[in-house]
Every structure is written in C-alpha cells, then in structure tokens.
Amino acid sequence: MENGKFRTLQDELNSQDMVDGHVLVLNHFMSSLKSQAIRCACGLGIPAVLHRLGGSATVANLLDETGLHPSKLPYLRRLMRALTVSGIFAATRGNNITETVYSLTPASRLLVGDTTSSSMSVLQSQRPEKGFAMFFRMEEWFRDDGGAGTLFKMEHGVTSPWELAKENSDYNTGLNKSCVIDTSIVMDVLLRGPSADVFRGVTSLVDVGGGYGAASLAIVGAFPGIKCTVMDLQQVIGEAPDDGVVQFVAGDMFEFVPPAQAAFFKNVLDCWSDDDCVKILRQCKKAIAKRDAGGKVIIINVVVGHGPDNVAAKETQVFYDMYMMSIDGIEREEHEWRDIFIEAGFSDYKITPILGYQSIIEVFP
Ligand code: SAH
C-alpha cells in the first residue's frame, strides 16, 4: 500500500521487465511441448528419414518418405520449425526461395536408428505413461504430509522402479534396455578420451548395480586386462545376456559387494538417499583393495555445478534431480558427495567432468 492505494504491477515493473517476465513464464508453461514434439518426430521416424536421404530434406520429401497424409504437410512444416528453433534440427533456404531444407544436427543424429541403437531408447523409456505422468501430481505430493511416500509410490503403488520391475517383467526389460543405450553412449565417449585413464592400472572391477553389464563390456573392450564382475538384483542378472566376457553375480548391494580391486557405480548412487549411500559405500569399502594397492571407487554421476556453463547442461542436471526426487534419490553438489564419502570412511576424492552434465568421481579409501 502506498498513499492508501495498492501498488499495481505497472508501478513495480517497467515494460521491458514485464515483457521479459511474461515470455519466460509462457516459455516454462509451454516447455512440455518440447518433449512431445521430439517424441512425435522420432515416432514418425524423421531423424532416420533425414539420415537415409543424405542428412537433409524438404518438408515435402519428409512427408513422402514418412507416408503421412498430404493434408498434414503444413503441420509437419510447423513441427520441424519448432524443433529447429529448439536446436534439434537445422534449416537452410533451398533453391526455391520459399522452400526450407531441414538437416540433422549432432543431437538429431543421435536419434537416428531404432530403440536399440540410439538415444531413441531414452525417449521411449520416458513415455508419459511410464515416466513423466507422475509429475502432474507433484503439487499434490508436496501437500501430502509424508504418508504417501515417494511420488513414484503415489503413482505406481510401489516405492521404486526396482520394486515395479520385480513384479512387471516388461517394465523390467524396458528399464534395463534403456540403461544399456545410455551407458553405451556415455562409456563410448569416456573411453575414447583422456578420462579413460581412471581405469588404467586397475586389474579387477566390480560394477555395482551394473544392469546388463554394458559399462563393464565397454571397459573390458578398452582394457582387456581388467576382470569385471557385474552385480545387480536377481531380476536383472537373471535376464542379462551373458556371453562369458564378464562375470555376473546376483545380490543386494546393501548386504554384500563382491570383492575386487576397484568398484564402479554408474547412475546408481543418485537413486538413493544419503543414509542409503553411506550403507552401500561401507559395503563397498569392505570389498575393495587398500589405497596403496590401487583400491578406489569410480562413480559416474551428476555433480551439480560441475561441467559446462551452458543452460542445457545445467538444466539437465537439475531436471535429473527433480526426476530423482520422485524416488527419493538426489543429484548431489560436491559438498553433499563429500559428506557421504567421509561418513562412509573414505579419505579423499577427485572429480573430473565428462559428457556435458555428468562427472567421474574417484573416491579413495
Ligand atoms: N549401472 C547401470 C544401471 C543403472 S540403474 C547403468 O548405468 O546403465 C540402477 C541399477 O541399480 C539398476 O540396474 C537396479 O536394478 C540396480 N539396483 C537397485 N537396487 C539394487 C540393490 N539393492 N543391489 C544391487 N543393485 C541394485
């Protein structure tokens, strides 16, 4: 109140601030259309068609090749324009002044192929009915007094994906396969670069919560001298394709971690609370060698605040964190990681950012 009258928005914000604020709010509200647009384009096979046509095509070509009804041409043009503005495709003017030629970018190149060979799997595994629908209930969850448990439980009736996977074999297989694709891309980049040095000198490794063993297979491929053991729950190990290159062990990491010189966790510890991580890491410390014998834990996970200083990488980190909130997991900042390492009895650590939003953390006993 000022002079007996309420201050209006116009009193508080100048025109530019009002416009900028309005655009930002609308942008947030509309952003879920980004996910729907990319999923639609992939479902229609557009990245694959572009690839087949040599990397670029007009909308008319895309319509022909995807077999869509001609009445959809103007709508397809708008879908392509939206995904070009957001950076998934690129556009140039064709011969005809009104004609736009769309082409693949590095992002859409990763979407070429089927669900077993590309980032497509990530999109598939995050179909609304499987992954994101529960977030429409986030406000309801915040208002709950804690009795409902996790957001995941509110939606699915069980606390975590692993419990759901135990009772639903299609969900189990889908979850494990989507981990394999993500892991293959991450490990490929990691093992091609200087970060591969974290595995140098390691003679044996236990890949805890290792799923179908994709990371271990990649590590053995690059370092044939390392003996890898993949440990995961029975429901995962029971259906992991075993070609004898790595050893598979079913078990519960809260009870026991098979002995090895080093332990490896990729996208595992962010699924658990601090207390649970301390329990897991204590089991791990019993399993690995002493520091002077090369003992260490290698973690691949987000370290919030580390990595490139661009909006896409930073948002991806905190979006993952929101996702993890649904199962009571967390993407940690450096000091949060440090606290659990110390609590679990480790003495030192080293963080190296890799692959944009993720880091490697080496933790020493
Ligand atoms: N490391 C793999 C899988 C990450 S998903 C990758 O990055 O691709 C987390 C994994 O932890 C799942 O495979 C899940 O089955 C496993 N997991 C969950 N609870 C576990 C437990 N108590 N003991 C061992 N593994 C567990």
From TrEMBL:
| InterPro entries registered for this protein in UniProt | COMT-like, COMT_C, COMT_dimerisation, SAM-dependent_MTases_sf, WH-like_DNA-bd_sf, WH_DNA-bd_sf
Residues forming the O-methyltransferase dimerisation domain are: 27-112
Domain O-methyltransferase C-terminal: from-to ranges: 138-347
The GO terms describing molecular function are:
O-methyltransferase activity; protein dimerization activity
* GO BP terms: methylation
What are the protein's UniProt keywords? Methyltransferase, S-adenosyl-L-methionine, Transferase
Top-level taxon of the source organism: Eukaryota
Can the keyword S-adenosyl-L-methionine be found in this entry's annotation? yes
Is Phosphoprotein tagged as a keyword?
A: no
**UniProt name for this protein:** Uncharacterized protein
User: Organism, per UniProt?
Assistant: Leersia perrieri
